[in-house]
Amino acid sequence: MKKNLYKYIFITLTICTATALKISAQTTASGKLTGKVVDVQNNETVPYASAVVLDRKTKAIVKTGQTDINGNLIITNIPDGVFTVKISYVGYQTMVRDSISILKGRELINLGTIKMKAANGNILSEVTITATKAPIQLGIDKKVFSVDQSLVSEGGSAGDLLQNVPSIQTDVDGNVSLRGSTGVRVLIDGKPSLIAGGNVAQVLASIPASSIETVEVITNPSSKYDAEGQSGIINIVLKKNTKLGLNGNVALTAGNRDNYNGNASVSFQNKKINIYGNYGYRYGNRPGEGFNNITYKTPVGTDEITYASQITNSTSLDKSHNAKAGLDYYLTDKDILSFSGGFNIRDNDRNDRLDINKYGAGQRAVEFSNRTNTNNGSGKSYDLNFDYSHKFKKQGEELTFNFGYSEGSNDNFQLYNTQISNVNGAPVTIAGELRNNQNDGINSNYNIQADYTVPMGKLGKIETGYRSQIRLSDNSAVANLFNATTGEYDKDYLLSNEFNSKDQVHALYFNYQNQIKNFGYQIGLRGEDAKLNTSSGGFDRANDLIYIPGSIAYKRLYPSVYITQKFKGDQQLQLSYTRRVNRPRPWDTNPFVDYSDPLNWRQGNPSLLPEDVHSFELGFSKFWPKVTLISTAYMRRTNDLIQRVRSIPDADGIIVTKPQNLTRNLASGLEFIAKVDVVKAWNFTANVNIYHSKIDAVPEYNINGNSGYNWNANVTSNFVLPHNITLQLRGEYESDEVIAQGKWKENYGLDAGAKYDFPNKKASLSLNVRNVLNTQRWGMYVEDANSITDFQRKMAGAMGNLTFSYRFGKTTFMKKPKKQEQQEMKPDEGSF
Which of these, 698, 807, 730, lies nearest to 264 by C-alpha position? Predict the structure, then answer.
């Protein structure tokens, strides 16, 4: 019933979107707004800046637009009235022009040259947020989503917040997928994080949602970006609070099941320096439950086991401190030095209770047991960055440089206690098995990058640069088995090991872009020299540590092509092609076994080859007064596809999964993103992705091939009520999704949030509930020639949070305008 209800909701909202599009398309108006957006320091044009035309009285969005590659702004079909125009772009202060009148006989308004002020000098700077930013900003190769206004994720983690971003899905373990593909590169402020050794799920669990300003989704990255990531790049941009003057905010959250969250930030900026700091604390407690049922097609072992059932109840507690601080110093009008650093310290305590029952034919009891898994994890990491930028005399010519270093350590102590309670239908007093495992890891990253941009007038613009990334990892695992005779732990040499790796990528890139009237194009080429060296240390029969070296090295060229055509009526068509790579991570190549799950062991593969990805996209965007529509048709071919393959069950029914290179995967689909202002008090953003996935047969691994259609959709609806109250509802549905040996099960859920802004506009109180109907669950059905596995995990119940936020400080150092100027010039963060 609930499943049908969700489908009905999505179908209804889709119809509403189509109706709104039709109504909006029929609206006619004759007003036209033009201008040119440039950098105030050197008159360099600002391409792809977002512009919003608001009704001056009601504050409703009337039209939206975007500058072209040369910084030109043209917004047409504006009705008669008095409006406010806001222009924003990543790295610049929002500019505001008030009281613009469009009347009959005065339809053409030329704003002239609009000079935007940089928010700060950091290469990876963000948009500041005194004004409400456009929820979606489009660049030539990325979409930027403003997520700081997400009510349903307040008090949660970065993983909770990503669920609210179109095109992105996350599962119960925090794993991220983009358009249904898990081969996605996740960055924090443009760089990989070393939290938990780079484990994306732990990275997202350690960052409070309140620390995040924007999320950049790059589904088909140009040659300027790292080629890593099968389906693209997700860049999470943290807040820096770079408004002029002294500013800050504090947010405190308390939730059910002992969940707490806190965030504080402060900044100071004048003409010479910008100093900022941000601190977040997260105390996240999440209970969960699940099952894992295995049917063996051929009885296994001497007991001829035909079926195994595993029921899991778990609790997971994450405690983390996340801090970031930086200084931007303006040496001259053209030279900026930036220093920034981040620190994270975390603890993760997880406890699992597993009940495992094994049966023979006819439900004959073979063995009943229970097991407790206790994991006490801790870790810390820090990163340091130095940035320098120089703007030359020639307009638009710029050189930037970055050096970054990060280091992280991770320690995990695991205790596995297995008790056998029943054998062949009779109770027993067997002591069972008691094990512990100590895992330690140290990781470090180096990043050296230089980028140079030079415009050539009517001939376009050239971008070129160099980047080196070096990642070092040292990991050790010491396994021990309890000896009941001596009362001590004996080292288990079979499961003890060391694994070290050095992953390095050196790259050069070149991009050329130009625009001829409404036609624009960009071509690029990136060359990478990549090498992964590994050293696997295991013990031989004499208990001597023997190291086996491994190496994966390759050189590749990664071209990218973008063609853009703008049409009348705020329409744009874009065609793009890129080549990408999905490199095996060090843990994918670690040959030693993870035995934390008693029925399903995991093992790495040191012989893995990188995936070779070819991606095509055809996108169409259209802006109406109340509707923004982005539609994309895409196709992605992945050669040497990496997926986990199951082994033949052993005598105890244990299945080992190991990543292997299959032949290829072809995925193609259609995606729609729509932002609709239905009425003044109601708007919603909807995302629908329909795609087909085909995986070729691989007889070597008994894979017959698999294919099928999949789809997912989400809708976030916002309501503005009287008395400074806003509401937000979010629904999501994910259909079954095919994999090489089965499918992921469908999943759906509903989140809700409400917010009250106090009359002073500096404080707010919000309440949200995630998983309102307690329906979210993640499952998998896998079948091969030897067995069938039915697996499911879910979080136990709804999660609620109450958050109080307070903002303080000035927004500008600008002098108060004269009385006669106030009507035409009201500064937001900047005015023009």
Answer: 807
What's the whole-model pTM score?
Answer: 0.74
Torsion angle of the four alpha carbons 819, 820, 826, 831, in this order, in degrees rounded to the nearest 10: -120
Question: What confidence tens digit (pLDDT) does each residue in 747-797 have?
Answer: 999 999 898 988 877 888 889 888 899 988 889 999 888 999 999 998 778
Exposure of 153 by Cβ count < 10 A (0-12 exposed, 13-18 middle, 19+ buried)?
buried
Angle, vertex CA 771, rays to CA 770 and CA 777, nearest 5: 140
Helices (H), ranges, 174-301: 200-206
β-strands 95-102, 81-88: how paired? antiparallel
Our CA angle for 92, 95, 97, nearest 5°, is 170
Residue 242: DSSP 8-state: -
HEC assignment per residue over 337-394: EEEEEEEEEEEEEEEEEEEEEEEEHHHEEEEEEEEEEEEEEEEEEEEEEEEEEEECCC
Handedness of CA 472, 232, 510, 136 (dihedral sign): negative
CA nearest to 332, candidates 269, 388, 404: 388
In this structure, how many other beta carbons lie within 10 angstroms of the beta carbon of residue 811? 17
Q: What is the SS3 assignment for 542?
A: coil
Q: What is the DSSP letter of 293?
A: E
What does the block give as tokens for 527?
């060359």
Structure tokens given for 297 = 């097609």
Q: How far apart are the C-alpha atoms of 832 and 830, rounded to whole Å?
A: 7
